[in-house]
Design brief:
By secondary structure, the chain is of the alpha/beta class. Helix content is 37%, strand content 12%. Strands 1-2-3 form a three-stranded parallel β-sheet. A three-stranded parallel β-sheet has the order 4-5-6. Helix 4 (90-99) links the parallel strand 2 (84-87) and strand 3.
């Protein structure tokens, strides 16, 4: 039977982790519902995803903030051909940058820094150093403040190795998925209505072929 877990992951065996309900805590409406709770979702090893999706880009959110964790992840990624973005702490950003300046990295601080700096100078056609080789998250309600959104902003940052994503935790996305992607913008959302509409659109497009 699946169950919830409590404690530090690095002090928990994989056998114990496999017994946990991976969808237990997911919510898109600030705790009103938990749509994936009790659906049989399990925790798998990272290697299983790399083997199943060898051509996909992976976002790896490193929760630990110690050198041992940085070293372990860096050594693991060194043998991978897949693209990946490491989301870490400010301390982790500095450590990984010193190891390999080509790695795509992001942190809460780096996203805020890029966003604020771009708001200050983006209108002048400049891309601040903090917006290079990273990712920028923009809530849907804030897009109107970013000069050039969507196409020019996406194109400009992509020329410096960065990508732009609409980030919606508890906010609805009114723009269609096709329109967003055509503009060069990615989407990170827990808006189930948006996700369902996107899946339905894909099925229609596939059936029309």
């Amino acid at each position: 039977m699946l169950q919830t877990g409590l404690g530090l992951v690095h002090k928990t065996s994989f056998e114990q982790l496999k017994s946990i309900d991976a969808g237990y805590g997911y919510t898109f409406d600030d705790g009103a519902t938990f749509p994936f709770r009790g659906k049989g979702l399990r925790i798998s090893k990272l290697e299983a995803f790399y083997e199943r999706y060898p051509k996909h880009e992976f976002w790896l959110n490193l929760k630990d903030n110690d050198i041992r964790s940085f070293e372990t992840l860096y050594e693991y990624l060194a043998g991978k051909k897949s693209n990946h973005i490491v989301i870490t702490s400010s301390k982790g950003m500095e450590w990984f940058r010193n190891k390999d300046s080509s790695l795509r990295l992001a942190s809460v601080g780096s996203v805020k820094s890029c966003g604020i700096n771009y708001l200050l100078v983006g209108w002048a056609g400049l891309v601040p150093e903090s917006c290079r080789n990273t990712i920028l998250f923009i809530p849907p309600s804030m897009t109107k403040y970013f000069w050039g959104y969507p196409k020019r902003l996406a194109s400009r940052l992509q020329s410096y190795g960065s990508d732009v994503y609409l980030w919606s935790r508890h906010e609805s996305i009114t723009q269609s998925y096709d329109d967003v992607v055509a503009s060069g913008i990615g989407v990170i959302t827990s808006d189930l209505d948006f996700i369902r509409a996107t899946q339905a659109s894909k099925r229609v497009n596939q059936d029309a072929r």
